[in-house]
Amino acid sequence: MAFLQLKSIGQTYFSKQTATTALEDITLSVSEGEFVSFLGPSGCGKSTLLSIISGLIQPTNGTVSLKNQLITQPHAKIGYMLQQDYLFPWKTIKDNILVGLKLQGCLNDERTSYALSLMSEIGLYDTLDKYPNELSGGMRQRVALVRTLATNPQILLLDEPFSALDYQTKLKLEDLVSTTLREHGKTAILVTHDIGEAIAMSDRIILFSTKPGRIFRTFPVSGHLRKRLPFEARQHPDYSVMFQQIWEELEQIEQNDTE
Fold first, then answer.
1. What count of other Cβ atoms lies within 10 Å of the Cβ of residue 136?
2. Residue 220 pLDDT more than 90?
3. What's domain 1-77+156-166+175-259's architecture?
C-alpha cells in the first residue's frame, strides 16, 4: 500500500468564456519516509498540485489518499510550509510555534515539551521570548519549520520555503531541514524551481511539463547523493551529471512550449 497515492489528478479552471486545464492525469505514489521534489517551468501546476495534496483545493478529477484515507479537506497529519513564514508579529516565538497545536485542540504538556525540544535541536531555544521582527529571515523560517513539525504531521509539503533567503542562508537551511526530516522519519514533497536544490535534497525528482501540467519524467537520485547532506551532495561528481540531464530535459520542455 502506497503511503501517499495520487490517482488521475486533473485540475481545470472555468470562467464564463474559457476552461483552462492546469493539471492533467497526474498519477503518483510516494513511499513513507521518501523526499520527493516537484520541478518544472513556471505554470506547470506544481504549487496547485501541492495545494490539492494538502486538501486546500479539490481536484476537478481524480483522488488523493494518505495511508488509504481520502484527502478531501485540510488534514491534521499534513503539514504545509510556504515561501513566507507567516509568523504572527504580535505573538512571541513560543506562542507562534504552539499556534498549530492550539488550533487543533491538542496543546498539552507533552506536545509543548516536544515543540520546545525541536527549538533546541535547531538552535533557537533562546529566542522563545522574542518576537518575529527580532529574528533574521533564516531564523524565522526555522521557527516556521518547528511550528509545522510541532503538530507531528505524517507528511510535509514544502512550497519553495527557501526562495526568499540569501544563498548562504538557503544552503544552511537545506542541510538543517534535510537532517531534521530524516531524524524524525518524515515524508516530504518539495516544490522548487531550483534544479540544484531538488538534486541535493531529494530521493526522487518529478519533472513536469506544462500546458497542461503533466509528469514528463522521473529522476531517481543516486545513493551517492542521498546519503550526503545537501551541501556535500553539491560537491559530488554525480550532482553535476544529474544537473546537466535535468537541464537538458527542461530545455526540451521549454522548446516544445514555444513550437
1. 11
2. yes
3. 3-Layer(aba) Sandwich (3.40)
